[in-house]
Amino acid sequence: MAGADYDQLEKEQQLKAAMYFTIKQISREVQDEMEVSISPQVLATLSESLNQQVQCYALDLENFAKHAKRTNISVDDVRLLARRNPALLQHLNCLIEEQSVQKETSKKSRTKSKTVSKNQDEND
Known about the structure:
By secondary structure, the protein is mainly alpha-helical. It has helices at 3-34, 40-67, 75-81, 86-123. It starts with a helix and ends with a helix.
């Protein structure tokens, strides 16, 4: 196997392991809250299903960007992906709005600090 192929395979395995670990952590919380037990086979099946779903999402996002003749995936592509899940779409829109407000606030504070330092330089 070529070096690049091995590196890619290793990254995929790391992602799968991280996904499984996260699912296992969440399942422990659910087990404690609901007083049920979840078998390792269920966790493995859930992890594999999630991995396949994420691969489908990645392909869809890539195709949305290609269809729009872009090389980068945009926020609009992610919104398009979530269009059939209204709760997820609403959550994404809230996150996007928060980021937009934070960026705007950051720009204003940077502009304000530049103006203040410019005025201080003029006064000196």
